[in-house]
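Tip: read the tokens left to right.
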């Protein structure tokens, strides 16, 4: 049902800049610029697609004023020379054609200038910083550390001299002039996130004893000088605003909210047209990497934005896991003025148009997996797990076909539903065959352990219901059925095979495989469960299936807090995504959980930033992670293993869950090919790729079919 968010859809003026609505793309470092820092086709296509989606304002992420000095990404956008102006003008013109305004975020990385460290350039800082042990590195998998590793000389840390400060101010002013000459519409000065201006503001990082250190007024001096120089360069009428940290979460003696309020007032008095409210964090803690400017906690920054807005007469922009309906209410109440989005716009660049037309149920949801930002940590371009077109806008977009064919899609999990959706949008005739009585596949089970996944599950189901796809549940895809349908091609998306791996003792009644756990929770038939569960358990789960409770992951999450047919002591064998999310789910329900795995580090399959947080949360929940285990075997209500010191250890277990052993399974595809059918395979049947692999393989298939037509 359409629901209009009239406040979000209303026009707004930021300084002299008239916006068509109150929605903005927040500045994000996306690693999509060219080698020389210029704006090329990749970055242009990325932002033009957002403009096409109806957003009022796009803020280009991290445009380096001293590039390559001060850069924190290998493909960061530069605005450090006049050579950058033509590329930025092309981008601005492309976005303007859709009625969207474009601003550049002026940036210098300071202590976070990783490219300076690698190149051997001096790393600029207000003063010698307090060193902290980077404990979050323990969350990196060995292959990720290899991706990040680049030989680098010893870091040259340079506390900034007055000459350095004067030069930096000149760089900001010159960059501002170029932004204006390129035809962009505004400037955001980046004064947050631990970068150079933020580190001067922070009492934790700034230990200077001159006019740039000590009191807040002194620590804010550099930022105010930059603002004044930028204002002089672009004139009084060109929109200029400043992003600041409303706090340094977890950082002892860092920026406080009161500091931020006072800084914002100083910026307003100095001529800023607005304030972007963000935050920074103690980077030595893994969970903090998803706690400040890219928060896991819903509306993490809203209270701070309200406090700062109350101190000002100029507009405030903020972001941080705010849902559109909530943003509409906050803006209507005067809590802030502009709704900024990062992850949500990666997941669905059409979100603003859907908001303005009241089609909120059509918005493809972000599942907060941190795929996007984790890419930047490992020096790769941005991507999105639920939207395979992100950063591939011209390669994977759906194009209408004039060569209509009849496709059968076999399997109603995420890969199958996404392929069916895309094929139907292209104009093909599509029949989706699912052997079960509902759509979802393994995404149903994943939605129980991790709530945001349910949003994607529901969205895909709605897409199937509103599309031209002919969905046939309870239908086996045997050759005779497909031949009777007269299909031209078959897409097999039947998922992985999840067999019990070869583990001594795994045949015992207190041991569940992944498929058995799924069948138990969802009320599906599995013959082995008759001997592994009580009649009462089978009756309750079957009743849940009959009444439809098992069709709704949110109901199962609630019901499992009251009743769960598992003992108190649980050993999970397998420390990848499924095992860790299952361990978290069980620990929240009062179980004592130990995860045992052969791998040196836990969490493969989880994106880095999500893994950082989950590992910390598991520790707080009392979950034990036993890595580097070998010779794992299951005894009489126990699990034994050999640890890395060669000692054999034994854990008592009321139940054992084996969360490993999933492999690709193309047997159906081979059977159908033998029957003379033209067959494609996507998703986990080609090897476990989780949600991202499902969505990407579906998009690649349909794009390839379009190119071949």
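Filled-in amino acids:
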């Amino acid at each position: 049902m359409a629901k209009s968010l009239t406040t979000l859809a209303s026009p707004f003026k930021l300084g002299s800049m008239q916006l068509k609505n109150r929605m903005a793309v927040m500045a994000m470092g996306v690693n999509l610029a060219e080698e020389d820092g210029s704006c090329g086709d990749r970055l242009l296509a990325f932002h033009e697609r957002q403009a096409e989606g109806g957003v009022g304002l796009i803020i280009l992420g991290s445009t380096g004023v001293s590039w390559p000095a001060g850069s924190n990404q290998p493909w960061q956008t530069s605005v450090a020379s006049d050579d950058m102006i033509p590329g930025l003008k092309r981008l601005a013109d492309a976005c303007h054609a859709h009625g969207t305004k474009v601003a550049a975020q002026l940036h210098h990385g300071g202590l976070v200038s990783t490219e300076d460290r690698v190149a051997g350039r001096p790393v600029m800082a207000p003063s010698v910083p307090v060193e902290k042990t980077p404990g979050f590195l323990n969350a990196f998998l060995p292959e990720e550390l290899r991706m990040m590793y680049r030989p680098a000389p010893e870091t040259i840390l340079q506390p900034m001299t007055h000459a350095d400060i004067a030069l930096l101010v000149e760089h900001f002013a010159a960059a501002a002039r170029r932004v204006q000459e390129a035809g962009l519409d505004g400037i955001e000065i980046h004064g947050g996130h631990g970068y150079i201006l933020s580190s001067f503001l922070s009492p934790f990082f700034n230990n200077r004893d001159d006019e740039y250190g000590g009191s807040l007024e002194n620590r804010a001096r550099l930022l105010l000088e930059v603002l004044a120089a930028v204002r002089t360069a672009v004139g009084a009428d060109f929109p200029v605003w400043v992003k600041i940290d409303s706090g340094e979460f977890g950082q002892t003696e860092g920026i406080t909210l009161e500091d931020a309020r006072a800084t914002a007032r100083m910026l307003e008095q100095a001529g800023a047209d607005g304030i972007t409210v963000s935050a920074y964090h103690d980077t030595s803690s893994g969970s903090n990497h998803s706690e400040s400017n890219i928060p896991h906690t819903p509306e993490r920054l809203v209270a701070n934005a309200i406090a700062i807005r109350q101190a000002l007469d100029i507009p405030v922009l903020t972001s941080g896991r705010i849902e559109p309906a909530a943003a509409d209410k906050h803006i209507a109440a005067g809590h802030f003025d502009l709704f900024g989005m990062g992850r949500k716009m990666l997941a669905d660049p059409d979100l603003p148009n859907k908001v303005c037309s009241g089609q909120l149920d059509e918005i493809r949801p972000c599942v907060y997996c941190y795929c996007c930002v984790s890419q930047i940590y490992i020096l790769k371009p941005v991507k999105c797990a639920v939207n395979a077109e992100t950063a591939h806008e011209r390669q994977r977009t759906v194009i209408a076909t004039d060569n209509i064919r009849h496709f059968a899609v076999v399997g109603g999990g995420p890969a199958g539903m996404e392929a069916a959706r895309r094929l139907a949008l292209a104009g093909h005739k599509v029949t989706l065959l699912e052997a079960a009585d509902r759509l979802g596949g393994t995404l149903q089970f994943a939605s129980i352990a991790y709530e945001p996944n349910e949003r994607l599950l529901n969205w895909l189901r709605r897409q199937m219901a509103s599309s031209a796809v002919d969905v046939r549940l309870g239908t086996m895809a045997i050759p005779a059925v497909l031949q009777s349908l007269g299909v031209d091609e078959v897409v097999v998306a039947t998922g992985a095979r999840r067999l019990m791996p070869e583990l001594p003792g795994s045949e015992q009644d207190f041991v569940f495989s992944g498929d058995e756990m799924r069948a138990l929770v969802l009320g599906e038939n599995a013959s082995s469960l008759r001997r592994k569960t009580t009649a009462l358990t089978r009756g309750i789960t079957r009743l849940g299936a009959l009444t439809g409770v098992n069709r709704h992951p949110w109901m199962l999450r609630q019901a499992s807090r009251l009743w769960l047919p598992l003992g108190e002591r649980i050993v999970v064998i397998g420390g990848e995504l499924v095992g860790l999310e299952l361990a978290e789910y069980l620990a929240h329900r009062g179980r004592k959980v130990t995860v045992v795995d052969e791998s040196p580090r836990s969490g493969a399959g989880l994106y880095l930033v999500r893994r950082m947080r989950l590992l910390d949360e598991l520790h707080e929940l009392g979950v034990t992670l036993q890595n580097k285990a070998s010779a794992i075997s299951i005894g009489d209500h126990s699990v034994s293993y050999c640890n890395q010191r060669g000692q054999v250890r034994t854990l008592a277990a009321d139940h054992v869950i084996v969360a490993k052993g999933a492999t690709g399974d193309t047997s159906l595809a081979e059977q159908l090919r033998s029957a003379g059918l033209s067959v494609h395979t996507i998703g986990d049947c080609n090897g476990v790729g989780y949600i991202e692999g499902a969505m990407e393989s579906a998009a690649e298939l349909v794009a390839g079919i379009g190119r071949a037509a």
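The chain has a mean pLDDT of 94. Residues 409 and 659 are 28 Å apart (CA to CA).
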